[in-house]
Amino acid sequence: MQNKKTILLVEDNPDDEELTRIALNKSGVANHIIVARDGVQALDVLFKENRNPRDPSNEMPVVMLLDLKLPKLDGIEVLRRVRADQRTRPLPVVVLTTSKEQQDIVATYQLGVNSYIHKPVDFERFTEAVRQLGLYWLLLNEDPWQALHAT
Q1: What's the predicted TM-score (pTM) here?
Q2: N or C of the chain: less Cβ packing under 10 Å?
């Protein structure tokens, strides 16, 4: 197992990507981040064949931060496909989005999202939300891939 766990950030907005990176860095999270700019690219990252576990760009992420409003394939459909496939079903998925729509919240929880976080507009609040997210999912939560391979 590698020392740094990979994060898959699915975000089409470059400004939100940069804010997320800054917030993670400010919080002391130095994990390798793979960015997917749309839903199709996110699925390509997750379902790529012939993974080399020594290459951080090829390892299965320990958590996916998923925006909902994405080009090509929206975040709800990405989540649906992740949960439908045995290879990715254990992947922790955190929706990190500007949407406060009740139907989005309900739909994602019905599909098995692990957490739904509304992106605060204020940078300090956003940084704190990302800090707590990093602490929980990267330090406290047990890595599902490690647990699956230990059995």
Answers
A1: 0.86
A2: C
Q: How many domains does the chain have?
A: 1
Task: Quote the CA–CA distance of 134 and 69 in Å, as a whole number.
Answer: 22
- Are the beta carbons of 38 and 66 closer than 8 angstroms? no
Q: What is the DSSP string of 108-136?
A: HHHTT-SEEEEPPSSHHHHHHHHHHHHII
State which residues form the domain around 56. 7-145
pLDDT band of 1, cuts 50, 70, 90: very low
**Alpha carbon distance 56, 60 (integer Å):** 9
Residue type, 68: L
In a domain, 150, yes or no: no
Separation of alpha carbons 27 and 33, rounded Å:
14
H helix or E strand, kind and range, residue 16 = helix 14-26
Handedness of CA 26, 30, 35, 39 (dihedral sign): negative
